[in-house]
Design brief:
mainly beta; 2 domains; 22-stranded antiparallel barrel; 5-stranded mixed β-sheet
Amino acid sequence: MARFWWTGGRASAALLCLWMWTGGLATAAGSTTVAEILEALRASGVEVLYSSDLVPPDLTVDIPLRSRDPLAQASEALRAHDLVLQSIGARRYLVTRFRSSSPSTSQAVTATVVEANSPTALEEISVYGSRYALEGWSRDQRETISAAEIEQVPGSQNDALRATRALPGLATNDSSRPYIRGSRLEDVLVQFDGVPLADPFHLKDFQSLISAFDSSAVDRIEVFSGGFPVQYGTRSGGVMEIAPRELNRGYEHAVGVSLLALDASSVGQSEHWPIEWLATIRHSVPDVVLKPVQGEIGEPQFSDTLGRVRWRPSGTSAWTLGWLALDDRIRLSTDPPDETAVARYRDEYVWLAHERTFSERLRSRTFIATTHAQRSRVGDLNIAGVAAGHVDEARSFDTIELQSEWTYEPSAPLTWTFGVEAGRTRAELKYARALLFSDLIAASFARPVDDSLSASVMPRASTYALFGSVRRRWSEFDAELGLRLDAQNNQGFEARQQWSPRMNVRYDLAPSWRLYGSWGRFTQAQRADEWRVEEGQSAPDAPDLSVHAILGLAYEESAATRLRLEVYRKRWTNVGPYFDNSLDSRSLLPDLEPDRVRLAPQDSESAGLELNARHALTPSLETWASYAWARVADEFTSGDVLRSWDQPHALTVGLAWSGLRTSMSTLVGWHRGWPRTPYANTPVSLTLGPRNSSRWGTYLVVDLRGTWTKPVRGGELFTWFELTNSTDRQNECCVHFAAADSVNGQLLTAPDSWLPRTLNLGISWRIRNYP
């Protein structure tokens, strides 16, 4: 097996030596003051209140700042001096001693504000916690992961989306693409810079192990597990909104290498022109550490480039040009070579956006985006006494989308949001399968002996949407009502329309406590590129319809302590058919396996309870934990059947420590095993039990991460390691078919597991200039 688990090739040994060397050497970090960091945060539009007694002008930043966004940088700089940022309203923070209490509603807190142009001039003001508590809370139920928090999660250095594993309600094991509260993978909307992306993952048909987003490109990730506002449509399960990284001044360039990829990035803002930029590029290295389960032989190759150029011709207008391109070349086979697969994927996204502020009350954002994708897959399955098959699939599609969103605030407590969307998709889907099963297998799985198929379709679809919402704020109550209309016109078929009313409410029980709720209807039309060509689908499905209901209680004492309890229910009253594998879900060629089943439930339901907490134990030690109890099932005439990713109990615990130039973190993930279908194997038959009526063993992983920073002339060296599944626990996931026994003809099967222990090492050279 040509993988790197504990030991690898010469490149890994060289990286290990370099990592240890740079970790053991260090020099001074520089002479930037804490006040300068806070002024940079203030320049970004965040109001900061502090006293020169707490933050004297000569208080320096003696540690390298790993974070990228100004808010996280300020938190790091203050934490080194036992200070924290305490939230007192919308983009308003107060600098206090660690563990200081929150301002109460009955007592004013006297604070001093340091003016930007005169550090010694002090103005006394009074800040009331209850006055700004309302603005400090989000009206919807999103979870936000900052750049600093992304860097704490093991596995996220080369892939920012892996940081979402720390959130409750997201079920995943190997993949970067999560199931959100029981929804299918394709039920989740992924957006970058506000632009929808169809499938921004590498190794798409091979467990989607890597996303297109290096951590250097991401400022924060916002995850809506349900109840999202009317601005987000087209998907019914959840939203992952990825904000691009920005700098308020200066620039940063970086080049790096790891056991997964070579990478380079640049982000900054011109001193002489009103231009900002972001650009990243990655290319896989030989013998990458992450490979699909059952892909023992062969090398997956991937590369991606992401860019964003922003021009501000005036203080009220901005133009943004962005792009994302992914390219995969995959050759994999099992050992022995029962399955071989060759695939090529190329996705290209380009968008142009315009933002305009007409007045203090009216602003808009409009973008036009194009997508071009080409995907091909060829594979062979040859298991003696089981099956022999060949598949040849080609998919391509082109999409153009337009969206315009407007926000109007006639008064401080009232906000109107309205917008329009339109799109057009042209797809060409071809699929050919030659597949023969043995008589025993055909009888055991209720499959025809010859299951060959050839299909070709060219769907065309036009879509449009209208949405609007109104938000009203009172002293302790906040409500938002919205309505969305989605419509589709598939060429040659009847047009369809769906209405989606939605409501979000919140009540502030106290300055640190809020009670919130959400109810809404969500629709999801089948895209032209999603037609199930493997069964010869010739007409679009009716749109999926789901209803979300959420009730939650949240507590936030300060920036250092957060707690949230939430109960939810999702019910799909219309669910499109989908495919699954009863035994071998990790196969390289799942559509050629005999356990492939088509599921067409009448309804589906997901319900559960989630608890999420984060707390700073000391200025340098932080912990977080999440627990989820849930159930997700499809409903058939014969009864309920659990979905294959159902997790009745799931627990995640993290601990992160940051020192002067060193940081360490660990993430422990545990959940009850996913459902499995039991079977009995005899020389004359293979008998399947009720689908998903049993379970795999408990899943447990312990992941580790460490970083070292060494300032050098002209920049700094940043080195890191990430150890996934550090105990090398064999978490069983599936059953792999093997050749039938030549003596008695009995079908041979073997259990397979999720990823074993995986070590990734990396080093980056960064050049920073923050004037």
